[in-house]
Write a structure and sequence with these properties.
The structure is a single chain. The protein is α+β, with helices and mostly antiparallel strands and 384 residues long. It folds into two domains: 253 residues, no CATH class; 111 residues, Leucine-rich Repeat Variant, CATH 1.25.10.10. 42% of the residues lie in helices and 9% in strands. The chain is built from 18 helices and eight strands. It has a four-stranded antiparallel β-sheet with strand order 1-2-7-4, with helices on both faces. A two-stranded parallel ribbon has the order 3-8. A hairpin with a 5-residue loop joins β5 and β6. α14 runs parallel beside α16 and α15 runs antiparallel to α16. It binds iron/sulfur cluster (2 copies). The site of one iron/sulfur cluster (SF4) has 13 residues, from α8.
C-alpha cells in the first residue's frame, strides 16, 4: 500500500478516535460552485456580512490561505443531543434557540480536536508540511470542501446533508500542503423533495440550493447587528436565536443519530427559556449566563431585540409588564423592538405605556417606532 494511502487511512482512524463523526479528504481544486458563490455575492444575498466578500478570493482558492496547499481534511461533529418537546417549542411564552447553541461554544472545542489531529499528523508524516486549522471562522467554503471530501451533498436548504448523520453537525478543516488520498464526492439525495423550501417561514430560498440571508431568521436574529426589518418580525414568531425549521423539515434528519458529548448538551434553561425574565437581564447577568455559549454573539442588545419581538408575537397582555420595563432599557435598539412588541399586543395598557415612553424619548428611531406602534396597535388587546 502506498505510503500516502496508509497515512490517510491512519489519519481517518485517528480523527474518529478523537471524536469526529465523519472525516474525508478533498483535493485542492477549482470549486464546482465557484460561479454560483460569486453570483450569490453579486446579488447581495450575504446581507450585511461584509467579511464574506472581503475574503472572496481566499475562500475560492485555498492556496491563498496556505501556499502550496494540496489537500483539505474535512471533519464533521454531531451536535444534536435531544429534540425539543413540541409543547415547549409551540409555547409562545418561551423562546426557541437553535440546537447548535444549547451547549458550549463549538468553535474552541472542535478547533482543539482538530489541533490534536494536526499534531498527530505532524508526528506521523515523513515530510514536513504547512497547514492551517479552521472551524467556521476563516476564509473557507466549508460546505463545498466537505462535499468534495465525500462527507455529504449540499441540499436544497444549502446545508451539508449526510445520509448517515443528517445535517446537525459542525464542520472543520485542516488545509495542508500534504498530498493525502482524496475521497469521491457523494451524489445528491434530495430528489424531488421540497420540504425544507416549503417549510421556511420567510421564503428565504429564491430557488432550491440558494439562500437569501437577508430573509433568513438565522441571519436576522444572530448576525444582523441593527433592527430586524418590520416585515420579518411577525414571521420570527418565538425564534430568539437562529432557526432550525429547514433542517427539522428534512427527512434525512429523522433517523439521524444523537450526539452524546456532554459539551453540546443543553445548558440549564437554554432549550426554550421563558421570555419575560430574559427581558430584564442586566449586562452582568447576560455575561454570566452566556459565558462560553454561542448566545453571546449577538450581544445583550441583539438578544433582547429578538426577545422583544418574540414577546410581541405572544399577542398576550401578560407580556406587557416585561415589555413595559424594556421601554427604559439603555439600548435604543432594544427600546425600538419593545415598542413594536407593545404595538403588536395593543390595548389600553400598551398604548399608555407607549405614549409615556414617547414623551420621554429622545432617540429619533425609537420615536418613529413608537409612532408606528401607536398607529398600528389594536385598540383592544389581541387574543391568541
Ligand atoms: Fe428559512 Fe429558518 Fe431555514 Fe432561514 S433557517 S432558511 S428562516 S427555515
Ligand atoms: Fe433535500 Fe428534502 Fe432535505 Fe430539503 S428537506 S435538504 S429537499 S432532502
Amino acid at each position: 500500500m502506498p505510503a500516502t494511502q496508509t497515512l490517510t487511512d491512519q489519519l481517518k482512524r485517528k480523527a474518529r478516535a478523537i471524536g469526529f463523526d465523519a472525516v474525508g479528504i478533498a483535493r485542492v481544486q477549482a470549486y464546482p460552485h465557484a460561479d454560483a458563490f460569486r453570483e450569490w455575492l453579486e446579488r447581495g444575498m450575504h446581507a450585511t456580512m461584509a467579511y464574506i466578500p472581503r475574503s472572496e478570493e481566499k475562500r475560492l482558492d485555498p492556496e491563498q490561505v496556505v501556499p502550496g496547499a494540496r489537500s483539505i481534511v474535512a471533519v464533521a461533529k454531531l451536535y444534536r443531543t435531544q429534540d425539543i418537546p413540541h409543547d415547549l417549542r409551540d409555547d409562545r411564552e418561551r423562546g426557541v434557540i437553535s440546537r447548535y447553541a444549547w451547549g458550549d461554544d463549538y468553535h474552541d472545542i472542535v478547533k482543539e480536536q482538530l489541533n490534536e489531529l494536526r499534531t498527530w499528523l505532524e508526528e506521523r508524516s515523513d515530510a514536513p508540511f504547512d497547514s492551517r486549522v479552521y472551524v467556521d471562522s476563516g476564509p473557507v467554503l466549508e460546505r463545498e470542501v466537505a462535499m468534495l471530501a465525500g462527507l455529504g451533498w449540499i441540499g436544497k436548504n444549502t446545508m451539508l446533508m449526510s445520509r448517515e448523520l443528517g445535517s446537525y453537525f459542525f464542520l472543520g478543516e485542516i488545509i495542508t500542503t500534504l498530498d493525502l488520498v482524496a475521497d469521491e464526492p457523494v451524489t445528491d439525495h434530495c430528489g424531488s423533495c421540497t420540504k425544507c423550501l416549503d417549510a421556511c417561514p420567510t421564503d428565504a430560498f429564491p430557488a432550491p440550493y440558494t439562500l437569501d440571508a437577508r430573509k433568513c431568521l438565522s441571519y436576522l436574529t444572530i448576525e444582523r447587528k441593527g433592527e430586524i426589518p418590520a416585515e420579518y418580525r411577525e414571521l420570527a414568531g418565538n425564534h430568539i436565536f437562529g432557526c432550525d425549521i429547514c433542517q427539522e423539515a428534512c427527512p434525512w434528519n429523522r433517523k439521524a443519530p444523537l450526539a452524546d458529548d456532554t459539551e453540546y448538551r443543553p445548558r440549564e434553561g437554554l432549550v426554550t427559556p421563558a421570555l419575560a425574565p430574559l427581558m430584564g437581564m442586566s449586562d452582568e447577568a447576560f455575561r454570566e449566563r452566556f459565558r462560553g455559549s454561542p448566545l453571546k454573539r449577538p450581544k445583550r442588545r441583539g438578544l433582547l431585540r429578538n426577545v422583544a419581538v418574540a414577546l410581541g408575537n405572544t399577542c398576550d397582555p401578560d407580556a406587557i409588564p416585561a415589555l413595559e420595563a424594556g421601554l427604559s432599557d439603555a439600548e435604543p435598539l432594544v427600546r425600538r423592538h419593545v415598542a413594536w412588541g407593545l404595538g403588536r399586543i395593543g390595548g389600553k395598557r400598551a398604548q399608555e405605556a407607549l405614549r409615556r415612553a414617547g414623551a420621554a424619548e429622545d432617540d429619533a428611531d425609537v420615536l418613529a417606532e413608537i409612532d408606528d406602534a401607536l398607529q398600528q396597535a389594536p385598540q383592544e388587546e389581541e387574543t391568541r
